[in-house]
Amino acid sequence: MHWFFLTLGYSGLSPKAPGTMGTLVSLPLGMVILIYLDATTLFLAALLISLIAIKIINTYEEETNNHDDQRIVIDELAGMWFALSVAPAAGVAFDNVLDLQNGFLVQALLSFVLFRYFDITKPSIIGRIDREAKGGVGVMGDDIIAGFAAGISSAVLWQGWLYLAKIL
Length: 168
Prior knowledge:
7 helices, mainly alpha, about 170 residues
């Protein structure tokens, strides 16, 4: 059961780009929560999953002596859900998901791209957490910060786009 959780339904077992696969699985799940519930629920779910994951990852690392196994992608879910809880943050009715004017889909996809960018390049504090934090906090921490950075960046870019569209 723990392996199913840590690999996000075994998506982390993908032979190519397990992190991207985990993020791809996380994106529609997070969008569904935003559509049918709200950003607060998504944020709290990400927080709860993060806390549970830290504990399970600590146990896994003690047993295997393997830090940040690439097959563990529950951290991608947490990061992606934190990004989505910031931007687009506002849910829309299912019928309006594909309406690009409300920004829901654009911001969700932009959050995905920016999250993967921050998670792969690990700039600034994201890289420092990845290098220096141990155990589950190290595995989860960089993705959580990358998620917030992606969500904020996505929201800023969307608002900038709306501002430019208005003045042009």
